[in-house]
Design a protein that fits this description.
Number of helices: 1
Number of strands: 0
Strand content: under 5%
């Protein structure tokens, strides 16, 4: 008893072949990249210089000054002509 028709089997084999080819192409690309990097040597690391500790920064802050209370004078009379 066939569970898949001929067209179904053809689609299944085509999908499997596509996935197999995709995997092979990627493996070849990764292998080529890995082979190229085998001969290369990394440049020697430069010794890290110790940074001198920074001196603390002090800010000069001026205190708020109290406003002097305004002194009000007697209101002036305004006359319109």
């Amino acid at each position: 008893m066939n569970l898949l028709s001929v067209q179904g089997l053809g689609f299944l084999y085509t999908a499997c072949l596509f996935l197999f080819c995709l995997a092979v192409v990627h493996l070849v690309k990764l292998a080529r990249i890995g082979y190229r990097t085998l001969g290369k040597k990394l440049p020697p690391e430069k010794p890290k210089r110790q940074k001198p500790e920074k001196e603390p920064v002090y800010f000069i802050v001026e205190r708020k000054k109290k406003r002097s209370k305004p002194e009000y004078t007697e209101p002036k009379r305004i006359s319109f002509k």
